[in-house]
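Notes from hallway chat w/ T.B., transcribed later so I don't forget. T.B. wanted the structure written out for a chain they're using in a teaching module, and asked if we could keep both sequence and structure tokens in one place. Agreed to drop them here.
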Amino acid sequence: MSDARSWIETIGQRPARWRSRGLSGTWVVAVSGGSDSVGLLRVLHMLTPALDLRLSVAHLNHGVRGESAQQDAEFVAGLAASLGLPFDQGQWQPTRAGHFESDARRARYAWLMDVARTRGAGVVAVGHTRDDQAETILHRIIRGTGPRGLAGIPPRRRLATRPSIDLVRPLLDVSRASIRDFLEQLGQPFREDASNTDVTRTRARIRHELLPRLAADHNPRVVEALVRLGSLAASSQRAIEGVVEDVARSSVVRRNDASIVLKQLFLRSQPLYLRTEVLRRLWRESGWPEGGMSAQRWRRLGEAVVTLEFGSFDIGAGVALTSKYPFLVLHRAAPRPESAIPASPAEPVLLPIPGEVSIPWAGGKVVSAIESTEPADETVDVDLLDLPLTVRAPIPGDRFAPLGMSGRSMALADFFRGRDVDRDARVRTPVVSDRQGIVSVVGHRIAERVKVTESTRLRLMLRWVADQSCYRSPGDLR
């Protein structure tokens, strides 16, 4: 217990700082019954006098493991009673096949917010550990991420604003092994969830196959290395965000929901990365949709600050950058009434190479070019296409192997759900297809099979040009 007390005192320092800065002392602790969440509850219970906490326990039954799930709920209820803590239990039932992980996560946090509001709590605590941090960072690296994604899971973030509820992760610096040792020393049992070993799930494969292989073959301290990378990335990101905030404040002349007026010369004087991050921050603060804004599009926007001498540059997502010296104006077209948006056609239309085709039901056109110096949203290998190319609306049963998924196919509907594209918007997102299937989901992702590699001889550039009178560009369909 002496070793455990050492790290318990260490991790208690962060919540103590939070409390000293005004964080609520009324906490809802999410407990599944597994070792991590049970360890979290026992640690917080030990720290209650020092931190002046008022704890309650919450358990959500996900309704997929029958009797075992019911036993988990009974175990957590008994644990809460043994510690003299209030207990809330919820029930959730999955409604969609193949979406359990994402749907369960949304349902869990929505329910926890409801419990917190009912209890008058300002904090929801969850039991993510250092191992979870490493798994998250590695997962993001595999999928493709930037500095922001490398920062991993934050120890604290805002879960709701009215009333204010924070999500905290006090055990983020502690290994799962240390927590289990602590529980063993206490004589505290916990429940094992068999679904955590189901390697058909990505997270389980990373935990039980990929990380052990990396540790055995390359670096036995790979978890520590990934967590250290995340810590460095988070520190760098915080420093960058401070500079970005200052530059953004100095760049803006005026703003409203539809436009942002910027000082052109001042913004041009900033390095590309910084001005791009400034524009990204202002975009996000305006509540404009980011779904269609790939890293390539953000970079093009940052470059356009310098290269745009007059006129307008269409960005996508219904937004244009216009030069009105000495100002730059980011302008988002006002939404048209739903009745003014053309219905999507049943028949595909041919996309010439090179050439363009108008897609009125999506509010713009798709442009193709061979080895062009003009900006492009996506680039594919011409030799890997099974021509001709067509543009059409999604149809039921469409499948797609997105870039970055190592050729694994998924239902296009699942891809849309993963990017929070609502049902009405999906039918108005154009897809470019060849004889083999989907080549590009316009404004989102290309297929893995047509990606450009070192052996590519000829590249096809694809670009979406939005009709500024219509906000229904693919990047806006979220």
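Follow-up for T.B.: The radius of gyration is 25 Å. Might be a good example for the class.
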